[in-house]
Structures are given as structure tokens and as C-alpha cells.
Design a protein that fits this description.
Helix content is 87%, strand content 0%. It is mainly α and 55 residues long. It has one domain. Keywords: Membrane, Transmembrane, Transmembrane helix.
């Protein structure tokens, strides 16, 4: 797995954990973390797919 895809995956996991913590604490800031998790998940998929295509 390429390094950028791995970093994006780590950011995605951390954003999901932060969203869960935010929602458990009752703050609506978790929505921002969910959006960040979505973006970083797409980035991880893109970099992983690009590395498979280019070789």
C-alpha cells in the first residue's frame, strides 16, 4: 500500500474515533469529523487505486 494511502487511512480511522467521542459527549462537532473521515477515506481509495493502475 502506498504511503499516502496509508496516511489517509490513518487519518480516516482517527477522524471516526473523534466523531464517536464527540457524539458520545453530546457535541455536534462530530459532523465535521464525519465529513473529514469521508474525505480521507476517498483519498485513501484514490491513492491505493492509482498505485495499482500505475504499477
Amino acid at each position: 500500500m502506498p504511503r499516502l494511502a496509508l496516511y489517509a487511512l490513518v487519518v480516516c480511522v482517527l477522524a471516526v474515533a473523534a466523531a464517536v467521542v464527540s457524539f458520545v459527549q453530546g457535541t455536534w462537532l462530530g459532523i465535521v469529523w464525519v465529513l473529514l473521515a469521508g474525505v480521507s477515506s476517498n483519498m485513501a481509495w484514490y491513492y491505493h487505486r492509482r498505485a495499482k493502475v500505475t504499477g
